[in-house]
Design goal:
The chain is mostly helical. It is built from one helix and no strands. It has a domain of 28 residues. 21% of the residues lie in helices and 0% in strands. It is flat and about 55 Å long. The relative contact order is 0.09.
Length: 76
């Protein structure tokens, strides 16, 4: 039976690359007959809740419907 050493990697200890160390990348969009499904990671779903939480933190008024309009930005 052989001994196996465990290795614990912590994200904070992982060496980060500086922008000058990142290798060149090429991004290509492929046309197809399929319906569009987006390009890359969609950021929009995370932005709306963050904005609504910021409005709630600032005004005390919770946003319960999108799109947000001026009347939603009143102080409670």
């Amino acid at each position: 039976m052989t001994a196996v050493a465990s290795c614990r990697v912590i994200f904070n200890d992982y060496p980060r690359l500086h922008s000058t160390e990142i290798p060149a990348m090429s991004v290509n969009f492929i046309q197809s007959e399929n319906p569009p499904t987006g390009l890359g990671e969609p950021v929009d779903p995370a932005v709306r809740p963050a904005i609504c939480k910021a409005i709630f933190t600032t005004t005390g008024h919770r946003i319960r419907q999108l799109p947000i309009n001026k009347t939603d930005l009143r102080w409670s």
